[in-house]
Amino acid sequence: MAQAQAMQRVVEDVVDEMRQRSDRGEVASYIPELAKIDPRRFGLAVVDAEGRVATGGDAEEPFSIQSISKVFTLTLALGKVGERLWTRVGREPSGSPFNSIVQLENEKGIPRNPFINAGAIAVSDVILAGHQPRETLGEILHFLRHVADDPAIAIDNDVAASEQRTGFRNLALANYMKSFGVIENPVHLTLGVYFHHCAIAMSCRQLAMAARFLAHSGRDPSSGHSVIPAERARRINALMLTCGHYDGSGEFAFRVGIPGKSGVGGGILGVVPGKASVAVWAPGLDASGNSRLGRIALEALSRRLGWSIFGA
Ligand code: DON
Q1: Residues with CB under 6 A from ligand 1
Q2: Which domains does the chain have, with CATH numbers?
Q3: H helices then E strands: how many in the chain?
């Protein structure tokens, strides 16, 4: 009980500190629907190993999870094809922006990792195989609702349509990969899955709940049920640490010291192995397209709660 109160107090302190800051960064505008979001929104949720939840600010407000969804589609793709996934996508940091095309030509259409846009499009293609896009999206939502223990999670169709209308770079990436045979389904179907899973809306609480299996060796810590093998959880966490913030991944590891995955909706999902899962939402972004205040908040939280995986 005392521990729950202490965690809630730290969360509230961090929310108060972040409210006072004015250096919020810029809300993403290349997806027109996201440009409408109020940059002052801020939410934070932590779920610990005992299932205690601490929340603050707009933690219950659903927002566009965007690239955070790539953690869950990667989990599904590994469940579907296992190690064969690594013939279609690499697992090295790119050091490049999330929507970059430059490495694809030299590397024969194989994206560097599953979290840059090209890699996540290839992952969408893998989970689409043998299905209609509607079925694949149903499977993604079903998985998220299951791990978050919340049936209310849904796709924001306005955001999906907004990105579908303007996603010319993603269209270029998908067509380019298709020319190397890395994309197997018709490009418009694969991109339909990709745009819609990026447009899933979730709150900080739902995201932190959904990532419990990554923080607890592949198991749901409340029921003890296995979601994925422990080794797979460990590897997904490794990819989040090395690639989850694109060309800002080194800085995030340096400052926060935990596996994390960002999205241009301003969310960051963090995993503290054995201890907790955490989600933060602050829509203003830095130059790499990662939440600016979100990273600062996680840095403060990590320091206070002794979360860094690199030592006290
Ligand atoms: O494809 C895109 O550009 C977006 N749907 C997702 C990009 C994203 O979230 C990058 N993360 N910070």
Answers
A1: 66-67, 98-99, 117, 163, 170, 198, 262-264, 289-290
A2: 2-66+201-305 (3.40.710.10), 69-198 (3.40.710.10)
A3: 13, 10
